[in-house]
């Protein structure tokens, strides 16, 4: 029988076939399956793609609801874990709504299932087997071949102008296409622009604005407190109450300073001038009041 302690099997007997590298056809088939999945599912939520659909600077497709869920803050621990996984997917491509463009597909009227789109120029299906592009900033999607044949610099759907650099290939697989999109985004960031051709937010201005708002809130809160204290004194006019409260506050501050000046304990910490106007060089707060005899020897 074997394997019962009476014999020792060799590797040749256990491993019938050696591991083989995948062939070109197998790699191509795997890539096509992955493309079909990416064309029908959101890369963030792994749910079925449903309108509205958005895309980032590399042509990846997402549900807009999933992107909003990723961008909005949350205190729920489960949501935080989900967002960490989402952050690993999008990396630095999506930092705000300015980094995405809504892709406007034309539904296939002859298909009974949802999620089937066609090119509005040729009426041919769009998907993993067709090189599909969309325009920035309008977001209308077309077949790359059909758009190239139009030789126009305006969108065939909305007549909005566009540049050739802003024709984004959806879900590219070739390294040359990916590199082209990466170079485009690097050029836009150097100009202070985002994928949607809108101006990138300045984090420095946000911090200054936040500090300014906080200072204004503090001032308003202090003013309300002063007015409330003045109202307690019987003053009903808000302007008069505010002015009165400020005067009372200044008077309290001056009173505190005068009390500190009159305090003998505090005065004793500092050297006083003699009658001739010169300070006592040998006297301090420890020895003041003690007179050293003139004939005393040290």
Short description:
The chain is 42% helix and 8% strand. By secondary structure, it is mostly helical.
Characterization of this structure:
The chain has 298 residues and is mainly alpha-helical. It contains nine helices and nine strands. It has helices at 11-14, 24-40, 64-71, 77-90, 144-150, 175-190, 203-232, 238-262, 264-267, and strands at residues 53-55, 61-63, 101-103, 106-107, 117-118, 125-126, 132-135, 141-143, 167-169. The strands form three sheets. Strands 2-1-3 form a three-stranded antiparallel beta sheet. The protein has a three-stranded antiparallel beta sheet with strand order 4-5-6, with no helix packed on it. It has a three-stranded antiparallel beta sheet with strand order 8-7-9. α7 (203-232) crosses α8 (238-262). The protein is extended, with a radius of gyration of 38 Å. The mean pLDDT is 78.
Main traits of this protein?
mainly alpha; single chain; 298 residues; three-stranded antiparallel beta sheet; 9 helices
Topology at a glance:
Elements: H1 11-14, H2 24-40, E1 53-55, E2 61-63, H3 64-71, H4 77-90, E3 101-103, E4 106-107, E5 117-118, E6 125-126, E7 132-135, E8 141-143, H5 144-150, E9 167-169, H6 175-190, H7 203-232, H8 238-262, H9 264-267
Antiparallel strand pairs: 1-2, 1-3, 4-5, 5-6, 7-8, 7-9
Query: Strand-residue fraction?
Result: 5-15%
Evaluate the radius of gyration: 38 Å
Report, as a whole number of angstroms, the end-to-end distance. Answer: 114 Å
**Could you estimate the helical fraction of the residues in percent?**
40-55%
């Amino acid at each position: 029988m074997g394997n019962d302690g009476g014999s020792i099997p060799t590797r040749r007997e256990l491993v019938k076939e050696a591991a083989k590298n995948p062939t070109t056809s197998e790699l191509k088939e795997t890539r096509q399956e992955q493309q079909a999945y990416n064309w029908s599912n959101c890369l963030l939520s792994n749910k079925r793609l449903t309108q509205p659909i958005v895309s980032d600077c590399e042509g990846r497709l997402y549900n807009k609801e999933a992107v909003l869920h990723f961008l909005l803050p949350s205190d729920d621990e489960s949501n935080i874990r989900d967002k960490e996984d989402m952050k690993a997917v999008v990396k630095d491509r999506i930092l705000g709504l300015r980094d995405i463009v809504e892709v406007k597909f034309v539904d296939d009227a002859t298909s009974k299932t949802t999620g089937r789109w066609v090119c509005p120029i040729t009426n041919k299906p769009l998907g993993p087997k067709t090189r599909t592009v969309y325009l920035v900033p309008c977001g209308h999607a077309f077949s790359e071949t059909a758009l190239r044949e139009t030789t126009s610099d305006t969108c065939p759907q909305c007549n909005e102008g566009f540049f050739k650099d802003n024709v984004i290939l959806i879900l590219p697989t070739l390294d040359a296409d990916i590199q082209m999109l990466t170079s485009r985004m690097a050029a836009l960031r150097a100009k202070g622009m985002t994928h949607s051709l809108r101006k990138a937010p300045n984090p420095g201005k946000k911090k200054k604005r936040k500090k300014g708002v906080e200072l204004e809130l503090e001032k308003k809160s202090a003013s309300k407190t002063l007015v409330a204290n003045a109202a307690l004194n019987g003053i009903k006019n808000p302007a008069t109450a505010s002015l009165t409260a400020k005067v009372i506050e200044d008077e309290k501050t001056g009173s505190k300073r005068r009390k500190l000046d009159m305090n003998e304990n505090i005065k004793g910490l500092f050297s006083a001038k003699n009658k001739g106007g010169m300070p006592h060089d040998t006297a301090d707060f420890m020895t003041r009041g003690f007179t050293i005899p003139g004939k005393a020897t040290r």
